[in-house]
User: Fold this.
Amino acid sequence: MTTSIRQTPLFACHQALGARMVEFGGWMMPVQYEGIQSEHLNTRTAVTMFDTCHMGRFYFSGARALDALSGLVSQDLRGMRDGVCRYGFLLREDGGILDDVIAYRFDAQRWLLVVNAGTREKDRDWIVPRLGADVVFEDASERQGKLDIQGPRALELMSAVLNRDLTELGYFRFISLTRNGESIVVSRTGYTGEKGVEVYLGADRIAAFWAELLRVGVKPAGLGARDTLRLEAGLPLYGHELSEAVTPVEAGMERYASKAEDFIGRAAVTRRLAAGAARRLCGFRTGGRQAARAGNTLMADGRAAGIVTSGTYAPTLQCAIGFAYAAAPLATPGARVTIETGRAPLEAELVRMPLYSAVK
Amino acid sequence: MIPEGLCYTKDHEWARVDGGELVLGITHHAQQALGDLTYVELPKIGKVCKAGDALLVVESHKAASDVYAPVASTVAAVNQALADAPELINHDPYGQGWICRFKDWDREGLKSLLTPEAYRKLLASESA
Assistant:
């Protein structure tokens, strides 16, 4: 376990822009440049870019790569065609969520798994011994960088920058292309609820690419806006909504862990589905601006009935929203709850997520 | 951004004597450190407080922070505009972003607050 805090290849770029830096998942990351509010709204109305070099990127190759990954990832990978990516989980035997990941299929023998920053070492230690000798594993997190470019203008602008029409690229589809002699990967994915792409390119080239995008008018956005955007878009965050203490059933995400083929954690998920989860992940919204925070208690009929995992003021919706685990009988959209904040209690309504989506 | 003619606290509030009343806000440094404000829990008019009492809370996307009564006082008015536009504190912390006004405030207590010069030194020492 390393204790030193790492810097992405864009660290100097963030400093040059006067970003406020925070530690996140073992990395020094920009939380904001101009302000969370404007970065959020720039993403909803125009286009922004996020440094996501901190996330982990594992490449797998070999004739047995698909078989090995299929046993580890909860989603069906065999049904994927080349150029498709798919969201799923790495689970423990007991169904606890080790991480949420996106799998990319280049071809049957070459795959990429994108994992969270804070779980990268844990994931690697879990995956590598389970691959078998004939699968080649590479942790490319250091040699490769990643930028997310998101917003209603993202596809049109990136089509021009990359000289390739991305407007017809389907959601959760990706392409590889060559640019300045370098092979880069562009996927129609993101973590904001907006149309946009994630771009993978060499760590030594990413600062120049960042500068180029700044010049054509892409504004930077930090982790603060990334959090408010993903909450409006109803996307869970590992370490908040997802953890080893819950299975995909509690998270209401069993559809990503229900393939017929066996994988680690499948039996536990099946058992949990049959028994029913004692608590379920729900979205909530209030009528006002005061935010609930992670750890606040959900109350119903005067009794503790759940716990908030994330909460913020939502700039697009102009009210406070969040995620909470609620006792199963309560956990239905429309249910009224009170949230104990340590100050004035908040009246909230449980809602179906997402509250905002413009990805398609 | 430390205007003359105001008193300051070590908790980054400012107070300004205005006629018989005392006006309270948070400093430019405070709003910058907090980031975009999303909610202000305004105090009740008539609330009686001692110096240093937690008086109200301001929230940003990431955190909630207490604002304290600078001196013994009674809340006479609140800036109702902040209920819908807490960003006024970010845009104009010493003007439109005022938070509340006090009556019956402790004039002796005001002398123990920081001068602009002393507050400037405090900021310098905090950033050192």
About this structure: Chain A has three domains: 6-53+142-232, 57-139, 278-351. Chain A is about 20% helix and 35% strand. Helices of chain A lie at 11-16, 36-45, 65-70, 120-127, 154-162, 206-215, 223-232, 266-275. Chain A touches chain B through 20 residues (CB under 8 Å).
